[in-house]
Amino acid sequence: MRLGSWRDEPVGPHQQAMVQVSFANEIFATLVPSLMLNHGSLSILIHPNTTNPKRDHTVDPIWIGRALGGHGEELGEEDEAEGALEVNTEPTLGV
Predict the structure, then answer these.
(1) What is the CATH number of the domain that holds 12?
(2) CA gap 47, 61 in Å, rounded
(3) Which of 25, 61, 78, 94 would be 47's cystine partner, CB 3.0–4.6 Å?
(4) Is residue 88 part of a domain?
(5) What is the per-residue pLDDT for 81?
(6) Count of CB atoms within 10 A of residue 95's CB?
(7) In a domain, 48, yes or no
């Protein structure tokens, strides 16, 4: 997993502040059930990162917790996807 952009205000189709986390496909089956059981009051949007971000956010996502609204019109059909973050296989905590 790799921590990406932290947004203190809404951005793109997201109606609330958010943080981006990317992860390798290989840990999906372990990570997602853990998030399902431990999300507390957080709403978590999990979506693919393809060359069609509108579909990624509006048709193919998975919500964990309460689903939040979005602004699909903020994304064009042919927009490029966010750049995938490099997978960090050796995470550390900054102190």
Answers:
(1) 3.30.70.1240
(2) 4
(3) 61
(4) no
(5) 45
(6) 3
(7) yes
User: CB-based contacts of 15: which residues, under 8 Å, 6+ apart?
Assistant: 68, 69, 70, 71
The rounded distance, in Å, linking the Cα atoms of 16 and 23 is 22
Residue 82 maps to a domain: no
- Phi-psi group of 35: left, alpha or beta (phi > 0 → left; psi -120 to 50 → alpha; rest → beta): alpha
Structure token pair of residue 62: 């998975």
Which domain, by its residues, includes 25? 2-74
Judged on CB neighbours under 10 Å (0-12, 13-18, 19+), 91 is exposed
User: Quick check: pTM over 0.70?
Assistant: no
Q: Which of 20-29, 39-48, 62-71, 77-86 has the lowest mean pLDDT?
A: 77-86
Total domains present in the chain: 1
